[in-house]
Amino acid sequence: MRKYIFLLFFLIMTLPAFAACKQADETVAMPEPKDISEFDNIEVYTAGSNQEWALWALAQLDNSDEKIRLYEYLLRAHTFLMRYDERDLLEEYYFVKNQWLDTISSDDFDEDSLNSIQWMLDDENWTIDIEYPLDRPFALSHDEFMLVYFYFSDANPQFFLDRRVPMTMMGEDGLTPVLGIPAYYALAYRRQELYESVINQFEAFRVQIEQAIDMNNQLYIVKYVHDYVVNSLRYNFEFAEFASRQREAADQTILAFFGEHNYTLCKGYTRVIKYMLNRLGVPTIDQAGAMIVRDENGEIVDMVLHAWNIVQLEGEWFFMDATWETPGEERMWFLLGRGENNDSHFLWWHEIAYDMLYPEVAIHDFVFR
Fold it and tell me: How confident is the model at residue 336 (pLDDT cuts 50, 70, 90)?
């Protein structure tokens, strides 16, 4: 049974729909392709992002010009999907759906797995792939692409439809990325309604915070956003253990806060805080890595994947970990520095994943005045 469930999750996340072999459902009249010649000239959408950090970090890497070109392409492609692409992506939709229909007609799955696939089909909960035009493919390896994508994803919480690490196609001329989004959003009006809903909800929150505090004081802004998120979201322990990868990926976005429920994982906390603080003028980064667990003798016994924020106040950067805060209680992991003794505080036991570059955090905790 377990092997079938694992295979199901693997297929959900990895089933390709490459343009070279896309097929339409013969019973459906496909729409004529619409002109997307404006793709290269669109105004990119950066509200809530931290472009400065990502571009600074990429500039330090080998082959930085090509990596920055890929980053800027991803920014343009996600903006286009969100604000400009009015096409219904039915060809992509039916290609993958037909693949799944062929799958369940085989004898390779037990009844529970077949029911899960049927639920996925009924709920339009599979992934479709989208390609946008390139001037030329990227002279990068897949591993280099992955690193750029992690910078892009962590810097741009305002994009939340791409819930799976994009696929890449490697040809003779180089690498081409393929975006993946839930099939439910193949229809353009659904994409537009979702983005409009998030933007409207944030604007309502902006009105609320402007009425509550002095917006000229960035510390007040950080406190308000931090406490509001801590008291609004809940860490879903059952979800982390049992939920499908599709659901887990969806709820580690800002939809954890602006969506239909209030349960999330650490990445949801950090992305919501980053999005809100950046939109309110406080530079904030989503830092991913691992929490190191030590025994009573100080020996490392485990490493747990984790994410937290680093926030800039008065020209210095500080750690902030909303995931481990208890709603309604005193802030424990709020604006901490690295400290002189790396065993003194929980956050100092973090290691950084992916060898990503971040600004240096202050030695001292934030001094409240």
Answer: confident
Task: State how beta strands 127-130 and 167-171 pair.
Answer: unpaired
Cα angle 143, 45, 167; round to 5: 25
Res 243: pLDDT: 46
Give the residue with greater pLDDT, 6 vs 282: 282
Close Cβ partners of 179 (under 8 Å, ≥ 6 residues apart): 77, 78, 81, 129, 130, 131, 132, 162, 166
Q: How far is it, in rounded angstroms, from Cα 54 to Cα 51?
A: 5
Cβ atoms 92, 17 nearer than 8 A: yes
Check: CB of residue 174 under 8 Å from CB of residue 137.
Answer: yes
Q: Which residues pair with 289 in a beta bridge?
A: 306, 352
Per-residue confidence (pLDDT) for residue 141, from 0 to 100: 93
Assigned CATH for 189-352 = 3.10.620
Q: Give the pair of three-digit tokens for residue 277.
A: 């603080």
Strands (E), 14-137: 127-130
Beta carbons within 8 Å of 92's beta carbon, 6+ residues apart = 17, 22, 128, 129, 130, 186
- Tell me how long the chain is: 369
Q: Which residues of 17-46 are buried (b: 16+ CB within 10 A; e: fewer)?
A: beeeeeeeeeeeeeeeeeeeeebeebeebe
pLDDT tens figures, 66-116 = 999 999 999 999 999 988 888 899 999 999 899 888 888 776 777 888 888
pTM comes to 0.81
The full set of domain ranges for the chain reads: 2-28+46-186, 189-352
Amino acid at 97: K
Residue 292's pLDDT is 67
CA distance 129 to 178: 6
